[in-house]
Amino acid sequence: MESNYQIIIGANSEIAKAIADNLITHDTPHGETLILISRDLSFYETKRFANAIKIAVDDYSEAEIKQATELVSPSHLERVNKVFVCHGILHTALFSPEKQLASFNPDQFSQTLMANSLTPMLWLKHLVPFLSFKPCCQIVVFSARIGSISDNNLGGWYSYRASKAALNMMLKTAAIEFKRRAKNIKLIAFHPGTTDSPLSRPFQRNVPEGKLFTSTFVATALLSHLETYQADGELTYIDWQNKPINY
Ligand SMILES: NC(=O)c1ccc[n+]([C@@H]2O[C@H](COP(=O)([O-])OP(=O)(O)OC[C@H]3O[C@@H](n4cnc5c(N)ncnc54)[C@H](OP(=O)(O)O)[C@@H]3O)[C@@H](O)[C@H]2O)c1
Fold it and tell me: Which PANTHER family does the UniProt record give (predicted)?
């Protein structure tokens, strides 16, 4: 029987690497079913991933996204049963999440929206027309609980919070469209919990004991939860325990 393929976008994310590692199986010991897309694929230059399809991008402009999609052969795309979209920025060398409105600024807001909301939607725009796997191709987009408006009791982190709320709204809108136009697509907005990665590293000091997860733990949990979802025309917004999050 032919194997199915999995696409991991933003594959240099700490959690993405753990997903890739987890998807290696006895039958595909060198990543034969993985399609890895990132600006930095150095993690995958090992024997373990020798047979994965690797696509390097310079940035995530729409032109690069379209070109990267076209580099995957249609015969591979039609066998893709899982896609993971892992983009997320919270801080850069030039900015940190805003504690107060006085720190809010247009550059931070637009860069955060671009990476966290716009870029994932461009991947959906260009990939979904080619994802014909039946009965169900699951697309997991990394969101965050902080994107829940009803859960916002702490305030702060204006740009990151808004970017994930915007992402959730666009995913919900896409799910409604896919119910008509791409019935085999199952969209999942996933909150991994606070996970040890470059994104969370400066903010780990106050995380309660036992609440800072390893990327391996989160990847294992996510992949097991995916077994419980079929294409149903809905956006599922869940956390690492597979518990639904209110918008
Ligand atoms: N870690 C946590 O505690 C936590 C909590 C809640 C939600 N999340 C979400 O989980 C996802 C994965 O995060 P992580 O912890 O694995 O973070 P990470 O290791 O810091 O990875 C960062 C990811 O963002 C991408 N990225 C960085 N700058 C970008 C830009 N300017 N434009 C587009 N993409 C850019 C990277 O792509 P390249 O592969 O091209 O470098 C990579 O996929 C994110 O969506 C994050 O918001 C994480």
Answer: NAD(P)-BINDING ROSSMANN-FOLD SUPERFAMILY PROTEIN, SHORT-CHAIN DEHYDROGENASE/REDUCTASE
Give me 23's structure tokens. Answer: 């998807």
Alpha carbon of 2 to ligand 1 centroid (Å): 31
Q: Which residues contact 68 (CB under 8 A, 6 or more apart)?
A: 37, 55, 57
Give the tokens for residue 228: 């419980």
Please check whether residue 76 is in contact with residue 35, taking contact to mean a CB–CB distance below 8 angstroms.
Answer: yes
Q: What distance in Å separates the CA atoms of residue 34 and residue 93, rounded to the nearest whole number?
A: 31
Residue closest via CA to ligand 1's atom 46 equals 88
Region 71-100: mean pLDDT is 97
Of 35, 58, 197, 222, best ligand 1 pocket probe by most atoms within 8 Å of the beta carbon:
197
Query: Residue 88 in contact with residue 16, Cβ under 8 Å?
Result: no
Nearest CA to ligand 1 atom 7: 144
Distances in whole angstroms, Cα of residue 74 to Cα of each of 47, 63, 132: 26, 19, 10
Q: How far apart are CA 132 and CA 178, in angstroms?
A: 12
Mean of pLDDT values over 8-20: 98
Q: Are 234 and 185 in contact (CB under 8 A)?
A: no
Q: What span, in angstroms and rounded, lies between the C-alpha atoms of 237 and 232?
A: 13
| pLDDT at res. 2 | 78
Nearest CA to ligand 1 atom 41: 12
Q: What is the DSSP letter of 116?
A: I
